[in-house]
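dude i think i finally got it to work??
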Amino acid sequence: MTVEKKKVWVVGANGGLGLALCQHLVAQGHQVTALSRSPSTALQQLQGRHSGQMATVVGDICQPGSQAIPQLSALFARCGLPDWTLNASGLLHAAGADKMPEKRLSQLTPSFLAANIQANTYTSIAIAQFLDPLYTREDPFRLVCLSAMVGSIGDNRAGGWYSYRMSKAALNMFVKTLSIEWQRRYPFACVAAIHPGTTDTPLSAPFQHSISREKLYSPALSAQRICHVLSALTPTDSGNFFHWDGTILPW
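look at this
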């Protein structure tokens, strides 16, 4: 079956899952713009192997003065707007004992909560704000944000991980709210959240000891699953939270 070629913007492209998404997309013949906050040798090597099919931009979409913004604007003006945008960026832990998912209320700190909100919620907001004025009412574009099942309030039975859960729940609310506005302005668009499953990347590395091997997925497999769900989305799916298998998750 012939795959319809798309222009795809991947944000967080130098992460374990972001890189796998870029690799999968170029292998499928799509045109990829990869955005990362820092230079990536792996991305540069991938672009070198697919020079006519891939562009890389370095910068932070959340910073108004970032050089990435005019670079992206010029690139999209020259090559066309993204048919699909994938936000694969995120934060679960960082260096330091006080920058790990909290097990108890007493471990919550303003700084780590703010860092989670910035990385896991605001990045998607900044992406949408960048894209918002670029499209016309007739454009059939898609925006997918990688969320997590632990951000589901209805599915929360274990507790803990306060900052990560709250930031992903806030992301889910943003996706739902944006879908309502965009349905009025862009009736052929679709914005959705996807839970990719626990993927074998540095993001999940400190917590893999509690995950059975059959539930720890390779980045390549997760990328394939995400793209399968993305490719099947229609405007009627806008505002939903999807499992990697395409089923709808509770908010």
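Strands lie at 7-11, 31-36, 54-58, 84-87, 142-146, 190-195, 241-243.
im so relieved honestly
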